[in-house]
Amino acid sequence: MIKFYTDILSKLESSISELDLQTDYSTQRIEAAILLIVKCLSDLKAYIQKRGFKDVNEEIQFFKHQKPTIVAKLIYYNAIYKIETKKPYGTEPIRKYLNKELKKLKSFFDNNLDFYKYYRSNNSFLDESLFVRGKHDIKLWLDTYYFQSDHSFSTSHDYKVAKIIANDLIQVYIEDQLYNKIQKDKLKASKILKWTGNKVALIELIYALHYQGVLDNGNNDIRVLAQYFESAFGIDLGNFYQTYLELRNRKMNRTKFLDALREILLEKMDAQVEK
Domain-by-domain residue ranges, the chain? Predict the structure, then answer.
């Protein structure tokens, strides 16, 4: 049982990691992750129904720890999908929306505080009532969901454990979203850096970066780069292409600014080494 579970979980996590590298946190990636998890749970259910458990301890281990780990991923990605697809526009509406989602997590915690304490304290005296099939006790924090679930693959509390695990992940995700939003707002509110060199020097730098392909692999039109630098540094470059032609046609010192950058950097490096 342990080997099968370890293998299927490892395969699932590897597949999800590959999706991370391909499409990041897009809704398409989340949809793909959900499909992978549903397939994993289907395979796990078929295995359990065919093999069964060797004893009560193995059954408790499965429904208290193993199955919830995978179901938590499903709950997590489904929650993130809903958050992303329902997210409003605008800084303040988004902030309020995310804080409202955090309050939902807090509400679940408050409504299930006794079970949180039991589970997180690693207690086991109720495990046979909570994590063995067909042994439910209606007095022990039961959700309506349980009565509608497949009792051959569910106990009264394995889903609640998965929910606890997932909510921790969802909270981290939301708080990270809020933090990034605050940081972006601070950046927008910060003082704009001004270009205090001459325009020719900046144009020389822009063309060098463009031809080196270090900004979006050189796929952007030079006009896009020029407009970006104008906005970032609060400067009007005018007819930058004409300036570039003049630079290109110079007989000497065509890269005066870049040469100066190299010289000053080497000079500072040498000075720091000597100290």
Answer: 2-189, 199-274
